[in-house]
Amino acid sequence: MRTPPMFNLFKTVKIVMTCAFLLVAGRSVDSADWRQFRGNEANSVTQEVLPTELSGDSIAWKVALPGRGVSGPIIIGNRLFLTASSGYSQDRLHVLCFDSESGKQLWERQFKALGRTTCHDKMCNATPTMAGDNERVYAFYSSNDLICLDHDGNLQWFRALGSEFPNASNSLGMSSSPIVIGSTVVVQVESDAEAFACGVDCESGETKWQIDRPHAANWTSPTLIRGSGDRPSLALLQSSKGLTAVDPETGAVVWNFAKGASTIPSATVSGETIVIPSNGLTALTPSEDGASFTEIWNASNLSPATSSPVVMDGLAFTLNSAGALSAANAQTGERVWQLRLKGPFSGTPIAAGGHLYMFNEGGTAFVVRPEADKGTILSELDITEDVILSSPAAAHSALFVRSDGSLWKFSRP
Amino acid sequence: MGTLSAQEAADGLKAPEAIAVLRAVQPQSKGSGDARKALETLISGGSKNLLPILKGFRDSTPLAANWLCNAFSGIADAETTAGRTLPADSMLAFVNDTAESPIARRLAYETLLAGDPSLKEKLIPSMLLDPSPEFRRDAVTMLLENAAKLEDSAAAVALYQQALKGAVHEDQVKTIAKALRDAGQPVDVRKHFGFLAQWQMIGPFDNKDEKGFAVSYPPESQLDFQAEYDGQLGKVSWQPLASEDDFGVVDIAKQIKNFKGSAMYAATAYQSAADQTVELRLGTPNAWKLWVNGKLEFEREEYHRSSQMDQYVVPVRLNSGANTILLKICQNEMDQDWAQRYQFQIRVSDATGAAVLPASATASRAAGVNQ
């Protein structure tokens, strides 16, 4: 489906007017992009304004995908990048690039997995979401193959972490998505038999640092506290033991929250609040210099299931295994309302323009307007019979989501 | 193709060096900088580099093969987008040359197939025993589709039996075995996959608090099948255990006793027809260590993250004649329903997943262990 020309003009003007370029570690980041799992700041929040009424007319395009994929798309400028995996043993790795305006496929590159590819049937090798920056994209798979390509599909480096560290695997599959902080790709590779986190140089692919991690299966993804002023950026690594803040340049541990945490949903950061799926939900705030933290609340009745928590406009949101969306005061942890949705959900919601966007496993999209005392479903749309396990992405006024076999773009009709 | 210009010839001369650079990449991103430049050289050279790149896959490392794959796709993409034709005849000849890399042949095939879907019918039927598991799978799929359409059961049985010769994947073998057994035909799935079914076992030894994984109990230093040792619950000695399972599963929990917090050893002998590299393919939900001829090949301390056929693939070197395979398998003390399995399955295969059968069962028995 083509976008009407008038709307293209509207979008172009709007992008020029509202698009903000952040300077992060000397690199410009278009805030309208969606460059990694849970967005540029790895917290599922975007300033983009998305359509609040989803219908067939809001589907700008839909394209077919090869193989399988639980990973979400990333968008850098007008290019959308996505992974998939195929083959009897899930050992065929795909990296795909589309024109995000038209949905036209620009290129596809395939590789052979060099690590273990065994997964639970619900997962697949292409479960982690890739990450990217102005020059490159970084595709990661359950087999622990970390592949760097330029935006035209030319291989820059290939780290076969699965064969470099053959015991760092899980027969149920690995799902941790890498994030880019400055010039470092931060990766968590954690299983019962072997576990580590490392920082890989974006340009060379060489390991800047590597640290041992708790030997326990872990499906969470790293997140970050963006530096400001004298406070440096920190990578936050979650595990069953808790949450560890490390210097993304050196891997040096800065502080450690040791009260345990979930091994599936991941922590999120909103302003000065770090929300961790720990003993329900626990909130920390970093010190001014970033060298320590203070625990500010814990709420045992806010346990997220698979989806990670999201914070927007002073409210912290979690989805439980029954599909109930809970909203809590982000300053106190007090639950203020619940809204029953049709679950279950695997993907993490997006917070955009005062609304939450989420897709359940059954292929139904929801737009929820949260208020101080209640949440309202503004829009509900069945888009597919296929299963959706991925987290959606939002960029340049549009919403994107994928199932195994399809990729959709939603925008204002 | 016309005569090469001087510039083209010069570019062509660069290709072997560039391919050599890609073949030389090493783990930990060593050689990536040079490889990026080599990639650029190859891609800018266009379609004349496609065949040299494909030939460069032969005996390359898996990591290098991925670089070569990217070079090939970069050129093929650019040529196709520009509306230029690929060297189809030479690529087709390459696909049919089974001495070349299976990955490269498949890459060439799929590139050609995109422009000529009829290639599937022309090529795949003859690939039942191909060195590429993907080609074999396609050939088996075709035979199964044809067999399912037949009303003549004798003809269908013949096709299923033919398909079985090439099948290396669990799902296809299960489909074939069911069809043949439904038709009253015997199928030895265990032998087809090369599962090791005859074992000598000893234990239990202590693995309380998962501490026994790191303990070197006597079988790790000496295999004496007449010996008796102090075990977890008293004296233990080697006992024969045979798996009757189609997939060679040795169910310790079911056949002996589900000793929680214990470790067992299983040994067998394998008579190899030659000095050769094979794959030992293991499936187990338990922690394990694997030795071949006294050499520790791999160990993994993980419990109850599922059990699947070919869950772990361990390349090992076998000597011509008798070889000893020793497995240590550990159960922990988790009490959840899904954490009670105490089992393993091991088979010997080549890189395609096809069974590598022992040369002689008699010779294996003479080596001191039933097989």
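qc> Helices of chain A lie at 5-18, 161-164.
qc> done
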